[in-house]
């Protein structure tokens, strides 16, 4: 007897890696209108950022990135979110991004590794 | 064949079948990362509306998403018990207003479970029955997964 079960509408993918000595969990979920990316080294979501492409007709898209919860004085976190939304937009998606960064260290090296790990994993959920 | 050997073979067989049946009855999907992050996804139908639930358990926090017939993200809220009086604080992070459904759900989730919660909720406004049903199922699931903190 073949019973077909509808698949869950939200796809997700997770990975665990070591970044500069800190164990890092990355979870990417793809909703209809947003991507949710959780990056944590501290066991909680930490700072939550929201990034969107602006409505507009110009050739070059502009993005709005803001911290909605948590550290508002760490520009590297905003930069990380901006890089990711640009990558998402360049890949052809018009979805927004909700990014959570719960990090022990906010160095450039850490954030670069996070961005590259996420970009590598993104095609899996889309 | 000696009767004792036969009994042993039969009881081993029964044990194996029972294990297989237990595995077949799991309908939801729970995936576990080596790092201890658990993701549980399930869907339920309530009055012709399909509710989708996604629970991501981190060490010190729980993220939950409730979808209503679609995979839209909805509005985002953060809620947690606040010391010293154990009242619950809620704030809307993305797109919420005080009359949106999610903030009440987030608040009551924390009240019932004692957890630190981030909730994304797409249940439409003015659907109290749907809201109550979704909340009930989510709380039940959190309890059955063993995520809730014991009441003081």
Automatic annotation (TrEMBL), chain A:
Q: What highest taxon heads this organism's lineage?
A: Eukaryota
Identify the InterPro entries for this entry. Answer: Proteasome_assmbl_chp_3 (IPR018788), Psm_Assembly_Chaperone (IPR053720)
UniProt keywords (A-Z) are: Proteasome
Cellular component per GO? proteasome complex
UniProt cross-references to Pfam families, sorted A to Z: PAC3
Q: State the protein's name.
A: Proteasome assembly chaperone 3
Q: Which organism is it from?
A: Forsythia ovata
Q: What is the lineage of its organism?
A: Eukaryota, Viridiplantae, Streptophyta, Embryophyta, Tracheophyta
Automatic annotation (TrEMBL), chain B:
Q: Which Pfam families match?
A: PAC4
Name of protein: Proteasome assembly chaperone 4
Q: Which domain of life is it from?
A: Eukaryota
Instruction: State the organism named in the record.
Output: Forsythia ovata
